[in-house]
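Ligand: flavin-adenine dinucleotide. Inputs:
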Amino acid sequence: MFSVLDTRPVAPGVTRLEIAAPRVARFWKPGQFVIVRVDGEGERIPLTVVDADPAAGHITLIVQAVGYTTRRLSQVPTGGEIADVVGPLGRPSEIEAFGHVAVVGGGVGTAVAFPTARALQGAGNRVTVIVGARTAAHVILADEIRDAGCDLIVATEDGSAGVKGLVTGPLEELIEADIVDRVIAAGPIPMMRAVAETTRSGAIPTMVSLNPIMVDGTGMCGGCRVRVGGEMKFACVDGPDFDAHLVDFDGLARRNRTYLEFERAALEADMPMAAR
Amino acid sequence: MKELSTRERMQIPRQAMPVRDPAERRRDFEEVALGLTPELAEREAMRCILCKRPPCIEGCPVRVRIDQFIPLVASGDLAGAARMLAEDNALPAVCGRVCPQETQCEELCVLGRKGLPVAIGALERYVADWAREHGAGRQAPTAPTGHRIAVVGAGPAGLTCASDLARLGHEVTIFEALHEPGGVLAYGIPRFRLPRDIVGAEIRALTDLGVEIVTDAVIGMAESIDDLLAGGYDAVFVGVGAGLPRFLDVPGEDLVGVYSANEFLTRVNLMKAHQAGAATPVIDLDGARVAVFGGGNTAVDAARTAVRLGAAEVAMLYRRTRAEMPARAEEVEHALEEGVLLTEQVAPVELTGTDGRLEGVRLLRMEQGEPDESGRRRPVEIPGSEFDLPIDLAVVAIGNAPNPILRRTTADLEHTKWGTLVADPDTGETRKPGVWAGGDIVTGGATVILAMGAGRRAAQAIHRHLTAKNDLEAG
Ligand SMILES: Cc1cc2nc3c(=O)[nH]c(=O)nc-3n(C[C@H](O)[C@H](O)[C@H](O)COP(=O)(O)OP(=O)(O)OC[C@H]3O[C@@H](n4cnc5c(N)ncnc54)[C@H](O)[C@@H]3O)c2cc1C
Ligand SMILES: Cc1cc2nc3c(=O)[nH]c(=O)nc-3n(C[C@H](O)[C@H](O)[C@H](O)COP(=O)(O)OP(=O)(O)OC[C@H]3O[C@@H](n4cnc5c(N)ncnc54)[C@H](O)[C@@H]3O)c2cc1C
Ligand code: FES
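Predicted complex:
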């Protein structure tokens, strides 16, 4: 069992959890994730580790309640327990001195991209983080991004904070006005695809953090397979970061909808499986 | 018990294990084979003609003393038989159920030359089940040696190695990546062949010996092997299995509705997708048409699982002929009884669908060509023989490649070009000092008992190594 040390909401439907997971905390590197099982009957879901304190043995997760399991996890209170936290999993993000890096986070994807942005800043890069959110209330990690020394640009769909519109607007402007050596994006599939298209013509190296459905997270099941440059890759051991210009986003989007009806039924019944 | 002559023994017919009716068992996940009754077991044990130099033992990778435990069953000394079996085999109730005895001990049984061999596997299962139900055959550890050993992977290889080392008095910690120990016994082999309480009991016997099992620990991603060696472990045994599923490499494999057998079976076995209320689904199979590609145990297990999930039609599609299927003969028979269809000598060329969902497979007929390295005749395509089969679900069960995690994270662990770990077949010693290995990670996908044999030999080698080190330090 893993103790939840702190649970707090950070945006509508988005919860930050601090969990005692010494093994993960000790070995985690930015870009890596864990697989979590809320209780003994639960499913295994992948979540990015947003931060880790190796000395204290704590990790931080930020989870958006999009379905049954993420909702259950968001409801585990401070002082509660979860059954399994395994990791770190996946390859760490490439952290090198690239120059000027634009990091784009959409929605909870900001949590996925943030640790990499901070590590890049720490490695001597100039980092501009573009955070996309529905409204001002949905913007997460703004203070942490600024505290890490990154420049922050916010884009909201309703214009309630920062610029109005999608993240690709500010990204295009940044590329026009400045030299951008590398782009990193994490968020909903349509957003990552749009970022990939934005940087394709200028051939700016662009990495996306993919979020396929996973089971084991160790390369054993092949459920997380994605096409990258026509080749089959397992996101859990070969990724989750891949070259955005080579990713088959359509295939990923289709495969992520495999269990849509099941998921809807589970959510409505507030039970993993209403009836079989 | 009255002494029987060899002739009298040979006149007793082989006793068949009772099996549940196919029409009934194909609807649930309860165990198919019911085990021998005491009467059947005793009668079967009496068939053993007590060879002076019993060849059967040679067929057993862990050298169970078959010639000695079977007479104990015949004479009704089940406690004695259980004790002996527990000494020789760390997972007897598992082996009695899943070992391919027909190509191992039973193949060498003298009775098999003229008639049917002694049902050694059924008797092993009988004794192991009796022991579990009566709390017998438990092993006591010897005095602690003070040595600590890390075992990576809680499959049959790791569990056996851990059990043997613990009984020799070493302090053993098993690190397992998944949330449950057992390896393929937990996520691969279905419960209708291997009920989970049996695996659970075998693992409890291990923790009773003092073995610590740490789940949720992926060695290579968390601690490296070097971290373990530096962190107070005197030796490391690597038994991480051959986990990475192979795909067909044909167009359409990314369609929704195409699973690897590992994923399909894991969702059901480990994550309980078959139960009402389970949080991890598989796509709805009610009335579906299912194709399983492959001819091994994994393919048969996937096909029989699909039947139980309500599929209307399940076909195993195999490149060669039934005689060449690597699956256990008994399991193939059980599958056919349950309504699984077997289509021989076909190979998929494309999976087809619309809107990203699987709708069919295009197949090519094959014929037998020249024998290949394995001695089996190579399947050769018959040009122009394409035909289409409508299907809703495809399960790819054509084998596994070794998992890349340790290979990528442990530079000085030597691997073959196929990705398997290089280890001495007699001792499991690798080229990295302090590290032994065995099971599927060394051999590629094999069997439970071969993995156990490797775990046992490595345990002995590790013990010898540590004892020699003690002597050196003392001398
Ligand atoms: C490497 C990796 C890192 C991730 N990191 C985070 C993170 O830090 N924070 C976070 O909130 N989420 C993260 N995700 C996504 C998260 O795993 C999914 O949202 C979660 O599995 C959904 O489970 P559920 O039971 O709550 O929802 P479900 O009922 O399974 O699904 C609900 C809805 O979410 C969609 N969905 C299902 N699986 C995924 C998925 N893997 N990605 C996106 N949408 C999905 C479904 O299509 C459906 O519409 C990550 C995914 C991966 C692969
Ligand atoms: C569906 C199926 C049916 C089968 N049926 C039969 C049968 O009827 N009879 C038979 O004899 N054989 C059968 N086999 C084959 C048999 O199960 C295997 O040969 C055997 O399990 C190999 O044992 P192992 O200990 O080497 O590896 P595994 O059983 O694969 O166990 C390896 C363990 O190591 C863990 N692991 C992997 N990497 C790491 C890591 N980095 N850190 C920590 N842990 C890790 C894995 O999670 C796993 O639990 C079957 C196999 C399958 C897939
Ligand atoms: S999640 Fe199973 S192989 Fe990646």
